[in-house]
Design brief:
Blueprint lengths: L1 H7 L5 E6 L4 H17 L4 E6 L4 H6 L7 E6 L2 E7 L4 H10 L2
Parallel strand pairs: 1-2
Antiparallel strand pairs: 1-3, 3-4
GO biological process, one term: cell redox homeostasis
Pfam families: Thioredoxin (PF00085)
Protein name: Thioredoxin domain-containing protein
């Protein structure tokens, strides 16, 4: 999990999307997250994490519902939500941490 530490230990907010291809709500979020990433540019990062390929990490973070969205800044979790969100809401939340 040291790689995970490197991913989240940034001075910009990092939005993690825990998803699964078999989960309809998760796949619906892909387009939303592309819009969020485009709006943020270099002021933040959006990282998608497949729960089926990252079971240990998903378990360690107690990811139960999909999609689960978590924002980290400087290695600390600052926001977490399960379920679909719209792009404007996510962009607004991320801008609070820029």
């Amino acid at each position: 999990m040291s790689k995970f530490g490197e991913l989240i230990d940034l001075n910009v907010p990092v939005l993690l999307d825990f998803y699964a291809d078999w989960n309809e709500q998760s796949t619906t979020m892909h387009g939303v997250l592309r819009d969020v990433a485009a709006a943020l540019g270099d002021k933040g990062k959006v990282i998608k994490i497949d729960v089926d390929k990252n079971k240990e990490l998903s378990s360690a973070l107690r990811v139960k519902g999909l999609p689960t969205l978590i924002i980290y800044k400087k290695g600390e979790m600052v926001w977490r939500q399960s379920g679909q969100q719209d792009a404007n809401t996510l962009i607004g939340i991320l801008k609070e941490y820029v």
